[in-house]
Queue: 2 jobs
Job 1
Amino acid sequence: MRNVYIAGIGQTPVGEHWDSSLTTLAVRALSAARREAELPIQALYVGNALGGEVAGQALLGTTVATAAGLGGIEAMRVEAGGASGGAALRQAYLAVAGGAFDVVAVVGVEKLTDVLEGSIEAALALALDSDYEAAQGLTLTAGWALLQQRYMHVYGYADTAFAPFPVNAHRNGSTNRAAQYRSAISREQVIRSPKVAAPIALLDSSTAADGAAAVIIAAEQVVRKLSGPRIRVAGSALASAPLALGARRDLLWLEAAEQSAQGALKQAGVRHADVDVLELSDQHGIVAALSLEAGGFVERGMAPQAAADNLIAREGTLPIATFGGCKARGDAPGALGVYQIVELTQQLRGTSGANQVADARVAFAQCLGGLGATAATHVLVRED
Amino acid sequence: MQLAKHWRLKGSRYRLEGARHPHTGAICFPRPADAAEWEAVPLSGQGVVESFAAAGKAADGFADDAVMALVRLAEGPIITAQLTDVALDEVKIDMPVEMVTRKLRDLGPEGLIVYGYKFRPLLVER
């Protein structure tokens, strides 16, 4: 396998882009990444969760490639729910590391706001077990709420214990110009907010919206010519677990998150203590909490305590949501995995301004599909 | 309309039909994707609440005010279902519940009305 490096990044803000189509958002992010990389793109993988169902457009790989003036190249959509962006990067990584291509583009894109909320919930629920969860009326948010209630029962936390996660996310989002929500919020505001799906609070719940992010990756011989610190994709892994909660061995353990984290860290030759900055699926505090535990970064049942102790802040030992995470940067489901790479690349380059994690050299990105039924993990390492 | 999709599920939806492995005796719900080696077995419909939550904003066709639960059935499997005849603040983990048949989803004049299992607090201790 060949070494693979980040050659360019681009993104649009996450938000309600009424005047932009899915294709426009994708091309905008891809164009920004191409201006940085200045390399000929040989293949394109589009990470997208709901383009067919909500935007009404299939063949998204070809659609975006053609619109970006890349007609003729290998192009396809990769779908893995909220892990689509990470899964698309995984395919691109395999293509470059395996020697099929030298330069590959990845675009994560989602366009949801063309339809009403009930239709968005129905579309997002496609990542649940269709016959035995979604058909019973479960939504993604309610699924995480079931896990939070069980977590509170087993480990003895109140629902207020998850407030530090959105507080941290909003603090970091307040200085991110591409964030959907750029206001800090207090613990009291989170606790006093109404429940969106009890026990989950409104201010601990991301808003699914539109956005696109792009990354161009390239083989070592190509990036030798690029200036600046080199960011290597040192680990890449994807794992799966049962979609239905009832089919899992342990409700409070995200097996796919554990497996893909271990796989990516092992491939990168990186220990947990070496990781300087993380981006996780964090639509709600419970998602980040279960991810931190399954990833091996904190002990079982200790994630809310770690958040209360401020370990997840930029100055802590486990900084997460450094540009606002799903809660404040915004939640464009199929694009999440690529937004994470765009943000972590800035962290490793040292160009994150007010959002910079000091001396970041090793970064960990993980995105989940469904209720953790799919997990894509990538480890980035700065080489000087 | 997806008539066939719902018709296929009639055993599990209306009888809470699971599957038993003839050699190991293992019981599962739902039935395995390819259940050729398994025998159908109706489950008792008795269970306890493993977890619960407000459904929040519902997907199209579902009521917004539903109470969702994970129910651990007496035979072992955990299933996802709505609770009925009970308010959210009355629900507790480990509360005994039993299966009833209720309307799950109504997609309007042009769509199907889907019936299936929900769970309510156990009325009589057995």
Job 2
Amino acid sequence: MAKVNVTVKILRFNPDVDEQPHWQTYQVNDVDETSQVLDVLHRIKWYQDGTLTLRSSCAHGVCGSDAMVINGHNRLACKTLVRDVQPTITVEPIRGLKVIKDLVVDMEPFFAKYKSIEPWFINPEPPPERERLQSQKDRERFDDTTKCILCGACTTSCPSFWANGEYVGPAAIVQAHRWIFDSRDKGTAERLKILNDRFGVWACRTAFNCVEACPREIDITKAIGEVKKALTFGTIDF
Amino acid sequence: MQFHKHEAVIVGAGGAGLMAALYASKSVDTAVISKLYPTRSHTGAAQGGIGAALANLEEDHWEWHAYDTVKGADWMGDEPEIEFMCREAIDVVIELEHMGLPFDRTPEGKISQRPFGGHTNNITHKPVRRAAHAADRTGHMILQTLYQQCIKNNVNFYDEFQVVDLLINDGAAVGVVAYEIATGELHVFHAKTVLFATGGFGRMWKITSNAHAYTGDGNGIAARRGIPQQDLEFFQFHPTGIRGMGILITEGVRGEGGVLINNEGERFMDRYAPNVKDLASRDVVSRAIYLEVMAGRGINGEDWVWLDIRPETVNKYFERDDIRNPDGTPRRIDADYVRKKLPDIADFTKTYLGVDPVVDPMPVQPTAHYAMGGIPTDVNGRVLIDEERTVMPGMYAAGECACVSAHGANRLGTNSLLDLVVFGKSAGIDMARYCQENDWKPLPENAGQEAADMLERIRTNEGTEHVATLRTELQQLMTKNVSVFRTQELLDEAVVEIQKLRERYKHVGIQDKGKTFNTELLQAWEFGNLLDLALLTATSAAARTESRGAHARDDYPDRDDEHWMKHTLAWLQPDGSVKLSYKPVRRILNPDGTYKYPAIKRVY
């Protein structure tokens, strides 16, 4: 495996001591090209500077802890390989949320938006004894949006969200889409009502940043478009 | 220090914790405390499926599921508990569907199921389709579905709070102490019942499928508070981790027809498990890979093999073995089918290996995956503190950190997600009952002070030892000495070396002295849990002079039912030594006094 030396520039901020965020540069040598940016950040934290602060958990792109801005793009540090971003790697916290420390931002507003679209199964009919039936086609209809891991990479890449923090944001719309287009769910009317707001889907200006940012390769703009269409025509296109 | 009061306090927000919260919160004031945002929990990494004999595609019975589990456990599982889990499986999977979980579907619209290792038709002994799944992100969908239900039911969440101590008064659990990660403030939670659902501790090995967060926090706290750990010597190495990284490649790949191939191009599981081949239980497959490597048949003579799901390979073996669809037609797959059934696997291999699994085979090696052992509990999650199964009032555990024991010496694939929801549910129900039947017990004097002192010691210690260095040494030691194959010499050496590491750990110093989001402090504390659990694991393993399930000894190659059909209980003593004791495996007797599940040699 090829080894490389990398220079890592990290935007740091510790509210206990810093007035302003500032850049700090680290040198990390003999890094496998195929290792993750997360591995490099851990090497810095574990062997150079214990004060460097970030979130991480699963380390293979399914838990959503380590969204950050890497070389200007919203990425998961564990799904970004060194060979694709070397030799100089710049790392910043995701934008539009308050920085708690270094690469850790306050995710509470993000999860509040998620909760605002009532992200749970709504169906007042008593369930059958066995499973509800659903055709393979109906299941396929919302498959893409079930992949969302709530990492926040999309919402924090969105110019509309940066301009107005009230905007519910792409992640919450993706989560709403997952239910609106699930043939078993009966909460469509109330979810569409929530999203039919100038801070709902209509704040989306189709900048497509979210699609580029999504580590799960969800076609987010398409999902938002489908929700807009459902609002415009008053019907769900299953 | 802040004080809170909730009748039911649940530590950990994975599948077990959230399922328990859902049930406890129906009738009592419930709080979930988690060091991660709930959707970050490692349940979300589970891929292939959840086992239940729904019989949606072919004949199946929960009794077959129970037998397969007893056998998979190498007769180390407690049989009444296994039967409970497999019987409840059907209702609980239907319940998840009723919560909106997006399972894949059969052509008739029912929940889709696929084969998985060790799950068989008990008549033909061929693989049976029992793993209910949502693509290859079943755990992700379970985690999200349960979290959604908890939000809907207004469960109280304390996200990014690290529980660091258990509060006990007069032998009963009465609360926990938690560290608020964002602020560094300590919080005392007064409770009538406490549930630990803190997950596993595979991070003591170098190659692991486990999250960085999997540091055995609940087990470590419990051990230091005098609660024994059961059967820690049984730790599962999953056969198919991505080479060098350990990232899990689901057994569902083999469930869909994938095969393991050695350097000679041979599908070697033919030799190790003539009936079910690549779908033997995980301990058997991991040992087979290891033996192939030892025989020089690893790829390029190295320590890994190929996992091949390319349609041409799969169809070749389907044809050779006459594998058929439920309707009797010959089974064949194509690239589209693989992409649809295993999209995340394709994503992982593309990201980390630059490999498309329908074009190229995947390089794999065994990866430390799952703790069969843990905090001893009964079927209602109640913690059992001795050989007589004495219940500790108010204390519960569920999920990977617990040991019911439904998995014995080796867990079957899909039974971990099942364990979470079945035992999470029964624990939640029993916590609510306990809360309603019992008054508040007072907190111990100076509640939280010990935890405060302990964290302050780590934060301000001027020691020269370094956590990352010690952790690397521990991981290398465990990988070398307490791995797929073990010997007395290796295990005894591990115990001595771990004690040295524990001594050095006392002199750890950290750089971050701040209060705000001090993850260096927490990682230092977490590593202490790994060390304590490694000691208990190695000590338990060194004592067990037999091979059973995941505990394979070169020097004692056979299972020894006469001496060793018993569970290990390991106590961490205040002086740092380990006390071992044993309790019998719970067997079920037929009316005529014979065993319902006679212990026979395991053959797949």
